[in-house]
Amino acid sequence: MILIAEADVLRTNLILAWLGGLVLFAAAFLLFNAELLIQSVLYRAAASDHASAVSAFLSMAVQALLLLLLLIFLPRKWLGILLMLVAVSAIINVTYSGILGEVLDPSKIAWMLAEARQSSNAIGQFGAEFALAAGKVLAGIILLCLSRQLLRRTILPTLQNLSMAPTLRFFVMAGLTAMFLLSHIPWFGPVSSERNLYVFGTALLNAKPPPDRGPVIVEADPSRQIRKIVWLVDESISHDAFDRLIKPDIRDHQAIDFGPATSLGNCSTPSNIALRSGVNVLKVNAKTDLRATPSIWQYARKAGYQTVLLDGQVSGPPQNMMLPPERGLIDQYKSMADGLHTDRKMADVINAKLKAPDKEFVVAVLRGVHFQYTDHYPDGISDKSKPPIYQYEKAVRFSKKDVLERVLDGVDRQNVAIIYTSDHGQNVKPGVVPHCSANPVRQEFEIPLFAFLPESRRPLFAAMTDGPRSASQIFPTSIVWMGYSADYAEKTYDHRLMQPSKRQVWFGRTVVPVNPGDQIDVGTIASYQASNPD
User: Fold this and answer.
1) Side by side, which strands form the sheet with 416-422?
2) Phi and psi for 291 in degrees, rounded to 5?
3) Is there a single domain that holds both residue 190 and residue 307?
4) What is the average pLDDT across 468-474?
5) Buried b or exposed e, range 78-91, using 16+ CB within 10 angstroms
6) What is the pLDDT of residue 8?
7) Are residues 270 and 310 in the same domain?
8) Which one, of 436, 438, 439, lies nearest residue 426 by Cα?
9) pTM for the full model?
């Protein structure tokens, strides 16, 4: 009986040690990957994008399992190398997330490498954040070491008795190799923080450089120019929300409303890339590379404008796949993310620019109301039980309150042209993906599109032709305001906004080819509507 009791105690202790080892490992993994799990799993689930949330969770689980097996079976002489590699990658991720609230991707790694000369300044400015990140990573490494001790004490004796350890070591190494290869496949999911530095670094080393953008082959006529041209590109504002909640407040400002227009994509990145690049809507196809066309910045600079980009959504480098060749054409870039009042602060900055004498072309990416909507107005946490439409409308009201009035306050509008639009619409229904869904609905494409123009330009729009408008028309309209030929603009891109769009196109997630010759996701609204009738 005593022997049986002792065996039971031993078995219980082994089980507790095994469970303790797993708990310690899970805690370490969470320390390294908290922000990634929140954004790729919890946020997608909160947005009802359950397929993406499950895919991301499974991807992270596979990577955690393989790290766990490696931690258990690696010989001591290799353990130090493993922990060093984990620590280096994790501390960069945790520090970046702690300072900026974002997760790393290859473009951000490239930006960090380009800004390495500023590392000492960054440490001086964000010393507390660096120290906190280092503390988290150190705690995670200690937890991994403790986990290894507990798990090896309970697992290895049993496996060695069964002569399984060498076989499992082989499968662990094979599994790690497979994981590295799978991580380069888009559907594999997010790459965990303890290793993504090396995966993204490899991707950057192997990436082909973007093509050279084509030159602007026409000349601008200064006598036909509008001195200030501004694009206000909002985030996730649907035409319906604009029409009911924003438009009534600007009726006295003589805005020209083009009605419900079609966005260039139901995701932010493809929409913004296409907007900046310009689209020849009659010729665009799956082999088009928007990185090779003259960008709006090239037209503006050749016409003598100072180019300005204000971004209210990020703290750090420009977003939406703005590659270095394009970034180099922007004279002034300012990241302006500053909490709930970002759009009002941006409006004040834009207002000051409109009153200055410089000839400027300004793109302002507003903060808007990206889901979760309760994050975009004060005390939103108390409204989490309310339906999405309530949360969304409250966020829109708060986001845009007084913004356009601040932009226009005291401005001499005789030489100012302002276009307001949104990157995409929003499908505000319970249990659906609001935008960027794999199977988009009409509401994801419907955006507001209106303009504030000098009195001298308004007669051109007095007898507008009825018909559907598209965000693709913003580009040709704007370059005509820069002094370029209207015939050239309409032949090369789309009709100006006085007429309906020649052909409404939209781009999917793969908006630029990864390698030369790859196909992109592009379609027409006409074909979309034919296959998705309301």
Assistant:
1) 256-257, 449-452, 416-422, 228-234, 360-365, 306-311, 332-335
2) -75, -10
3) no
4) 97
5) eeeebbeebbebbb
6) 56
7) yes
8) 436
9) 0.71
